[in-house]
Amino acid sequence: MRIGLISDVHGNLVALETVLHELEQEHTDQVVCLGDVGTFGPQPHEVIERLSELKCHAILGNTDAWLLTPPVALQTDSENRRATYEINAWCAKQLSPKDLGYVQTFAPTLTFPLDEGRTLMCYHGSPRSFDDVIAATTPDVEVTRMLEGYTATIFVGGHTHVQMLRRYEDAHLVNVGSVGLPGVNPMNHHVHWAEYGVLTVEDGRLSIDLHRTPLNMAALLEAGTSSDMPHIERWTQKWERT
């Protein structure tokens, strides 16, 4: 069994197609998306349509919830907050009723049986909340609160846009990074790749591989500049021009 694990596509069809092509070459049996599919990128409809065509199992991320219930516009002096609201509102308007119907099927968590009694639990931030952050430096006591009531061999999520493999008691915590906006502080400055993971279970052996694959930057930037997404310069400036 081979499971492709993707997260945080954020409206980036170029990156998504690159990763899906590699997962096909990896002969994965299924793909699971860990949330945040359509916001903050120039191709929200195209990404959601592609995932829907795949009949991809998907987790509800925090920005997916924003698409279903857009945040109320607030009077603010923060340029970042205004831009965030305006970009999210634009992304929501690009979606068809079919797109929104697909997003409404996203589950808070999903659990998959592996073998020999082992299980995979999928979520966005944590099983408790899509807003939670599980990082390499998160104290065990905080992780315990986030995982309370849940058991699995592998816990896998996204949300932070930073890949991670961490031991926790008898389990492993995995973050597969971001397909469409990898990196943090400042988010994906001088980044030119997409990230994803592959879980393999075979003959009693279990492996977790974290991948980073280069992108066609000309195609990616063209997708951005040819869209009418507001504040598109904020998006294009995040990518390395090669």
Map the helices and strands.
Blueprint: E1 2-6, H1 13-25, E2 30-33, H2 44-53, E3 57-58, H3 62-68, H4 79-93, H5 97-103, E4 110-113, E5 119-122, H6 140-147, E6 154-157, E7 164-168, E8 171-175, E9 193-202, E10 205-214, H7 217-225, H8 232-236
Parallel strand pairs: 1-2, 2-3, 5-6, 6-8
Antiparallel strand pairs: 1-9, 4-5, 7-8, 9-10
Report on this model:
The protein has 242 residues and is an alpha/beta fold. The protein has a single domain, classed as Metallo-dependent phosphatases (Purple Acid Phosphatase, chain A, domain 2), CATH 3.60.21. Helix content is 31%, strand content 22%. The strands form 2 sheets. It has a 5-stranded mixed β-sheet with strand order 3-2-1-9-10. It has a 5-stranded mixed β-sheet with strand order 4-5-6-8-7, with no helix packed on it. Strand 5, helix 6 and strand 6 form a beta-alpha-beta unit. The longest helix has 15 residues. The radius of gyration is 17 Å and the shape is globular.
